[in-house]
Each structure stands twice: as C-alpha cells, then as structure tokens.
Amino acid sequence: MGAIKTFTPAATAAEQLQKAQRQQLRQLNDDYDAAAKPLIKDYPEAERLSWAKQLDEASRYREWQEAGENGTAPPTPALNAILKGRNNGDGTETLAELVSAVLTRAEAFIQWQEYTGIRHRGEHLILNAKTIEDVQAVTWESLTS
User: Fold this and answer.
1) What is the pTM of this model?
2) Measuring CA to CA, which residue among 8, 18, 34 is closest to residue 127?
3) To which H or E segment does residue 116 belong?
C-alpha cells in the first residue's frame, strides 16, 4: 500500500493578495511602533495606559487655573497619587508643576498623532491595493518621505 497523497490547490490570486496585505500591515505596524519608541521608550506600558486619565485631570485643572482659580479645584485623584509618589511626602513638587509636566508630555504625544494618521493612510492603501506590487510599495519609508 502506498502513501495517501493529499492535493493542496495553489493559492488563488486573491488569497495571495490577502496574504501580502496581512504581511505588509504587520510590517507597517512594526515600523510605526519602532518610530514611536523614542517618544515612549522611557514609559512602561502600565503608565502609558493612564495617560488619558492624567491628561483629562491636568486639562481640567489648567482650565480652572486659567479661569482665575475660582471655586473648588477640579478633582485630580490620579495626579494626586502620582504627586504623592514623586514627592515621597516632602512636598517639593506642586500639583501645578505636575500638571505642566503632564501637559508638556501630552503635547509631544499629540504631535505624534500625525504619524497615527500616516499609519491609517498606509493601512487604507494596503487594503485597497489591487496587486501584490502595489501592496509592497506601501512602506513606512514611502509614507513618511
């Protein structure tokens, strides 16, 4: 008795295109992450996950400051906890200073969002490409040069 041979049909052109698209999207995302490294390299992921909360509190606090600090300051529980840890009980840094630091970091990250848009554009170009050559032509370098 001989071995049973199975027949595996060759991938269709559409399947080949989809495979190329998946590969190119992975590469685009890897290149995007690599480009972001200088911006986020010194921040652990757990801290980055709190950036939206920090920005929200810092923005509301800054608005309160700019409005003349009338009434009660907005609650800033996340920033207060960070400040407690940064100061180690000695009170050398103020909430206003921390708010400025958070807003400065946020501004740099907001500027980075242009690259997020570039990544989105690349994703659309890859997914709408009709040929493997067109897919492979979409690279981080081609999008940012």
Assistant:
1) 0.67
2) 18
3) helix 95-128
